[in-house]
Amino acid sequence: MSSIVVKNLSKDMGPDKTLEIKKLNLDSPRIIGLLGPNGAGKSTILKLLSGSVEYFKGEIEINGINIREDRQNAVRGIGSLIENPRFYQFVSGGHLLSFISSIRKGSDAGIHEEVASILDQIGLVKKGKALINTYSTGELKRLSLGAAIIGDPDIVLLDEPLDNLDILGELVLDNIINQISEGNNKILIMASHDLGLLEKFCDEVIILIDGKIEETVTMDSGNKKIITLSGEVQSNLSLSKEYEAIGNEIIVELGENEEIISLIRELNSLGYKIKKINDYSVLKRKYLDILKIKGLSIHH
What we know:
Elements: E1 3-14, E2 17-27, E3 30-35, H1 42-50, E4 57-62, E5 65-66, H2 71-75, E6 78-81, H3 93-105, H4 111-121, H5 137-149, E7 155-159, H6 167-181, E8 187-191, H7 195-201, E9 204-209, E10 212-218, E11 224-229, E12 243-246, E13 249-253, H8 257-269, E14 274-279, H9 282-294
Parallel strand pairs: 3-8, 3-9, 6-7, 7-8
Antiparallel strand pairs: 1-2, 1-4, 4-5, 9-10, 11-13, 11-14, 12-13
């Protein structure tokens, strides 16, 4: 089982900004999202967990190993794609992957087969022997994803994984996340502004504001739907289903299509026209509420 334990973590992020996490315990299997405005501390957390930032207060343990006391062994089982990695330009993509795998596993056994498999998975078989300086932006991002997962790391850290991805890259990312989710001993942490990506794959999403954990949202909306109506919902509106009203929207638990059709007919009979019906997003609602309380916008 893989694990991450953070205690009393503090890291200066710049003028008047400090990352502070009192306690964070993660065990596998788990897919965790990090969500927050720019400068909230998402990338800083990933850098600290990857071992690329040395100076901080508090304790970080990776698989029971204190990262401050034994950084090399603590981070050996971590694969990461953080910000825009800079690779040496005058080696081939295949050579780079071989090098990373040998370091991560401490062995060259089966490395050629593994590199061939990863190149196939990220759609770069034909570019495997080409120098990295010939790669397009999308190809570089896919190579970065391959570098994050080669060597079968227990923990994978992805920072804005959708940035600079081409269409093939998005399919590659989906396959990689699905593959990680099938492993019983894997932890994946993704920092992203894309609510759709986080909702699709994450078990939980940690919302960060100004370097602090504001809330952890469990990704389970059940069968809730959000129905947008043609007009404001009357305060005395009586329906056969319990609901929550916000402006011209109602949030309601609905199961089979028959229940949806029945409620539509009920609303129509009361003079409401249905503009659209969407799955209810717990994450979006929580995030927007927090931003509103903090006086921030979703584009902040």
